[in-house]
Design brief:
The chain is an alpha+beta fold and 242 residues long. It has two domains: 128 residues, 3-Layer(aba) Sandwich (SMI1/KNR4-like); 87 residues. Helix content is 26%, strand content 25%.
Length: 242
């Protein structure tokens, strides 16, 4: 399943409210102040989720969207070598920014690039803005305790395939393709439970989760999954708030 706003809304369900979006008038005003149009995918994202309390909280060490009023085009003082980008996402703690080339803003679903204070040249992050936005939102929901019920497995001897088999996660039925070039995350949704695997990006440990985050709005759904997983004799230890 390809990552898109609909995938995020399915997880949020009735907890998502119309008031969590930004008005068309405010979006147009921002476009006028920037002097450039926002791509259709980004406009729809802000219009639907621009004020979502589940996504726009300050999380410091995770990728998160800039509030609409803070989206910017770099000036001469910005540290990157190329300034011709619309910057709309960041990791505040690590001084990482994500942007879209100004020449690509006319595209409906443009490519996303990233830069870091330690690396001022823009690098390819995701060939789809739609997958980028949805994938990053799902990671935030999974790892930042945004939903009421959660369980976390720390690094262990289990591989991704061990977890997939135990949790009966089937591809492509349950997987959500976030499309990042780094392949640092694997995301699944099954029976109202969001499962986010943080993966090592080294070639030697590609199938080795650094952590596994399970979260849901439904206590019963997460309890059922953990009970099923508990049948495995060598299940790694985990923390949960159930």
């Amino acid at each position: 399943m390809e990552a898109n706003i609909e995938a995020v809304l399915r997880i949020l369900g009735g907890h998502h409210k119309e008031s969590h979006g930004i008005s068309e008038a405010d979006i147009q005003a921002k476009e006028e102040s920037l002097g450039v149009p926002l791509p259709t995918v980004l406009r729809n994202y802000y219009k639907t989720l621009g004020r979502s309390p589940y996504i726009t909280q300050r999380c410091n060490n995770q990728y998160e969207p800039l509030p609409l009023q803070e989206v910017f085009i770099p000036d001469d003082t910005f540290f990157t070598t190329d300034k011709a980008f619309l910057v709309f996402y960041q990791v505040e703690e690590s001084v990482i920014y994500c942007g879209i080339r100004l020449q690509d803003l006319v595209l409906e679903d443009p490519t996303v690039y990233l830069c870091a204070w330690s690396s001022p040249d823009w690098q390819l992050d995701n060939r789809s803005l739609q997958r980028f936005l949805a994938g990053k939102a799902l990671v935030q929901l999974g790892v930042e305790d945004r939903l009421p019920y959660w369980a976390i497995f720390d690094e262990s001897m289990w591989s991704l395939s061990d977890y997939s088999r135990c949790m009966r996660l089937n591809e492509p039925e349950h997987v959500i393709d976030e499309g990042s070039e780094l392949n640092a995350w694997k995301i699944y949704v099954k029976d109202d439970v969001l499962s986010v695997f943080e993966l090592s990006i080294s070639e030697e440990e590609m199938d080795e989760p650094l952590a596994v985050y399970l979260t849901s709005f439904r206590r019963a759904g997460l309890e059922k999954l953990l009970n099923e997983m508990g049948k495995a004799a060598d299940l790694p230890p985990f923390r949960t708030n159930l």
